[in-house]
Amino acid sequence: MTTAVATAVATALRAVLADTGRGDRDISPDQLLGADLGLDSLDVAQAVVLLERSLHTDPFRLSTVVAPLRTVADLVAIYTAALESSASRPD
Questions:
Q1: Which of 13, 20, 54, 62 is the most buried (most CB within 10 A)?
Q2: Structurally, how many domains does the chain consist of?
């Protein structure tokens, strides 16, 4: 599942970069959202909305503890944990 989440995160981040005129870039897990990719809080929020739509989950609504979002890997980890948590809950 992590590969699918990583792909979705990279796709969302590329879409935000393209929408804001910053072109297409390679996205790697160790990149800092702010310093390396140049994203501000609104850009990250836009990426989160795109991820909620594509992954059909909102990790921020599911958890009362939110880890800091500093890197691409942080974003992947938060969505991976949310998807695993929702898959383990009974309907």
A1: 13
A2: 1
**What confidence category does residue 68 fall into, taking pLDDT thresholds of 50, 70 and 90?**
confident
- From the number of C-beta atoms within 10 Å of its C-beta (0-12, 13-18, 19+), residue 24 rates as exposed
- The candidate with the shortest Cα–Cα distance to 75, out of 54, 48, 50, is 48
pLDDT tens digits, 9-44: 999 999 999 999 998 889 999 999 999 999 999 999
Does residue 39 sit in helix, strand or coil? coil
Q: What is the CATH number of the domain that holds 49?
A: 1.10.1200.10
- What is the pTM assigned to this prediction? 0.89
Residue for token pair 């836009």: 46
Question: How far is 91 from 55, CA to CA, in rounded Å?
Answer: 18
DSSP 44: H
Q: Rounded to a whole number, what is the distance in angstroms from the first to the last CA of the chain?
A: 20
Residue 44: name the closest of 61, 64, 20, 80 by CA.
20
